[in-house]
Amino acid sequence: MKQLLKWVVISFAVMMLVSCNITNENEKPNEKNNIEAENAGNNEVLQQENSIIEPKNPDAPLIDTDKSINQREALLNLFEAAKDEPIISILEPGDDYMNINMFNRPLEEKQPISVETSIDVTDVLVQLLQSSVLTEYGIDTFMEEDESEATNIEEFSENGKEGVYYQTDDGVYGMAFEFDGRLYNPFISNVQSTEDKEKMQTLLKLMTKSMNTENEGAYNPIYDHFTIDLNEVKFPSFNEERVEMESIGVLNNPSETPSSRHTNEVRAFYNIEHLTYVFHIRAEQLEIYDEDSKETESLKADNGTEVIKHMSINDDGEVNDTSYEWKDGSYYYVINTSDTEDLLSDDEILTIIDSTIKDKREFDHLNSFQNLDKDFSLSKEEKELAEIIKEFAS
Is the pLDDT of residue 165 over 80? Predict the structure, then answer.
C-alpha cells in the first residue's frame, strides 16, 4: 500500500491535475529521467480501477469533433472545486519554495478532486498527500499495512482533525488524520540529525493548524508561477465513446533549467481499451530518456509538423516505453505510454496529433484560475511553521 501513496507528484508541486501518480515518499523524484517509472505506476493503478469502469466502444473512431472529450470543462471544474481543498497555508505572495499539485479525477467517486502540497528544501521533503487510498481504507488499515513499522505513535484531536502522529526508523515523520470526511497523510522525509527531528515534531503539530483552503484565505502560489497560457494550449478531440479520460490537471514543479525556477505542465491520462496514454503540454522541452537508452524516428503530421518518436530500450533490447513529441507554437507536446503490447499504430497516433494541432476549442472563462481577492496574512502558528521551513531553505 505504501507504493499507492506515492504519486506522480513530482518533488513538490502545485499541480492541479487529474492523475494517479505514485512517488516514493522517501525519495526525491527526478522528473527528467523518471517519467517511465511514473507512467508505469500509473498504469498499474489505472488497470486496477479500469476493472470497474464500463468499457468503451473499441470500434468507434478515435477522433470525433462532435463527440469529443471536453478537457477544458474538466479543468474548470478542478479550478473551482480546488478553492475548497485544504493546502499547507504558509506562503504569502513573494515566497517561492512551495509547489502544489492539483488533480481532477472524473471517475473517482471518493475523491474526484485532490490537492497535494509539497515543500522541497535542501534534502528534506515536506508533503501533504490527500489519498483516495486513505479515504477508502481508513487510518487503522493505513497504520497496520502501510506504516506497520512505525514507532512513537501518538493520537491527536485538534482543530477538527483526528488522527495519529508517527515516525519510522528511516527518517520519516508523518501523520494520518481525518478532516471534513476525508483522510490525509502529511509527512516529512529524509530527516537525519537529532536537531532536525526535534524540529519535525514541532513542524508536524503546526501543520495541523496550518491547513486552510483558498476560500478561507490561503495563498496558492500556482497562479503566480504558472506561465503556460491556458488559452493557447490544445487538446486532442478524443471520441468520448471510445476513449476515457482518467485524469487531467496542471503542475508547477521545481525547474531543472537555469532559465526558470518553475516548470509548468498540463497533463492528462487517457484509457484507450487496455492502453494508457499520457498527454503532456510543457513550456520547456521534456527530456524523456537517457541518450544511450533510446531510439528515435522522425514522422510528419498533416500540416508538416515534425513528430519525433522516442522508444526506450531496456537491457534485453526490448522497447518498454514509447513517446511522440512535437512543438506547436510556444509549447512542447508529448504523448507517452509505458504499455508494450498492441499499441496504437504510428498512423493512429498521428491522427491524434493532427486533431490536437487543429483544435480550435476555447475555455468559457478562466476566472477561477487565480487567487481570490483577499488580503493574505498568516496566523501565529503559520508564521512559526514558515520560519522552520525557511531554516531548511537557507
Answer: yes
